[in-house]
Amino acid sequence: MLNKKIYIYLLAGQSNMAGRGIVPETQETNPRILTLNQQNRWAIAKDPLHWDKSVAGVGPGLSFAHTILKELPDDVTIGLVPCACGGSPIETWQDGKFWEQTNSHPLDNTIARMEEALKDGELKGILWHQGEGDSSEERAPLYQQRLETLIAKFRKSFNAANAPFIIGQLGQFPDRPWTEYRKQIDNIHKTITETVPYCAYVSSDGLTSIGDDLHFNTKSQHEFGKRYAKACLSINN
Q: Is the pTM of this model over 0.85?
């Protein structure tokens, strides 16, 4: 299964990257789309990719992979590395930090899993969806520096200075208007993609929720994954 080139894509952030969409009864699988499972072994990818919480469901990762695979040579296999942690504020994405909701160390665990994945392939992109947990008076002012530091940490740790870092916009749900702090996080996301090299911003325009005005539904996650793929392909790597 590992006799071909593997392009590695890291899936990181909080619950909307982990996915909370309803998993369909039948799924399209492809032997050229793998995921690093909980035992750090490659397996054919299918939803849910994550296991951060018992409610893990459909996220953007699999749709991203199916979309981007169409643009890759036939001798390339995609390797997804699911590492998102539901509810995690960005302060938990620092060395040694523990996040009790998922009983994990978000950054430390991600680096360890990526070390295993990169034995078999090359990092080609990092998909990031996070910020709901930092949309507060206390955390929002610290967010830009923390995210910029994290991007640099990822790239240094994975020896991939030009790795595309794709930031998905937070959900825009009419029944849950953005606070000034949510707007601040969104502006930071846009600013970073304009000032930090090899970054891109993915709009969440028109996407809808599972009914909680927080998590994207399955249809929207499938569309979001396609948008992530388009953004990733747009970056010269």
A: yes
